[in-house]
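Whether sequence alone determines local backbone shape is best considered at the level of individual chains. When preparing material for the folding task, we compiled for one chain both its residues and its backbone structure tokens. No coordinates are needed to read the tokens, only the vocabulary itself. For completeness, the protein is quoted in full, as a sequence line and a line of structure tokens:
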Amino acid sequence: MKINPDCLRTVRQKKGFTRPQLEKRSGITVRTIQRLEQEPHRSEKTREDTLNRLAKALSVEPGVLTGDLPLPESDDTLTDNLDRVQIGAQIAPKARLAYDLIKRRYGVNATEIINMAPLFFTLLAESSLAWRRKKLKEAEETYDHLMQIDGFWSGGSAFIEHGMGEGTFVEEESIDRADLFGEHLDDDFDSSKNNPFTYYLRKLANELDITGIVGVDGGVLSIASNFKFPHYDICSEELDHIANGSPIARVCLETGCARPSEIPDELMAEDAGEERVQWLKKKLPDILKRDKEGVIAEFIATSLQGDEKRDILLKADSQKTDSETEKGENHE
């Protein structure tokens, strides 16, 4: 597909977007946008994916940017800008990968998920509090039953009653304060190793029994938000399929060296697994390119979590790459 430089530039300006703003909306680099607007011969090599992403970001049909359809007469930029605000947030590479995998499975993009995130989180949070209330009530009923057992030792009864009374009060107060992570429980309680909300998420994932789609790790909590949340895996079976079972390719995706959406369409074919792995390997730092047997990659994939994976790659890689140039090449 060939983008008409004049059409792209006119639509962008008419919508009121600068090139950096269009980059944020489309994921296409400023450098690429500039070339497409100024160098007609470059536009002949534009990937269809690039055309579609620019068209979606500008809220026009792809044909408008190629010149096959007329330019929009009205300017709805004001409405667009009033309906949307830009937020600043940093996420781990693995979280960005999760967004990509969710889009592949459910057809829902990251922006839509972010818009719905307050609802999703509130539902989970209130569900966890309701579950704690239910468990507290069950504990109280069990205690009442125990006290009615004929011949129960009076000393033991007093001991249990004291502990139950104090524990019930602390838990009720924690629930009433919407204390998801148990930060207002006993001083000896370490919410960085476990907490009520994390426990509930693990319980929910186990009950759903959808291994390969959602997995909540039972180990050390994530570095996200002061160690309150667990590590998790989204669509791990799909990730394994994309990586074609290669630890090196999987590490490449999990650390953000490459994204599924950047892989050329022809390499996503069922019979192109090996070619896909080779393409992903080229995106890795030199330390892993030399890892012929995949030993280092296997260690990273199985032994490290979250940003630890990213850090070890950054420390191991002595070469500094021009990421802007690489992005431009990926999206052309």
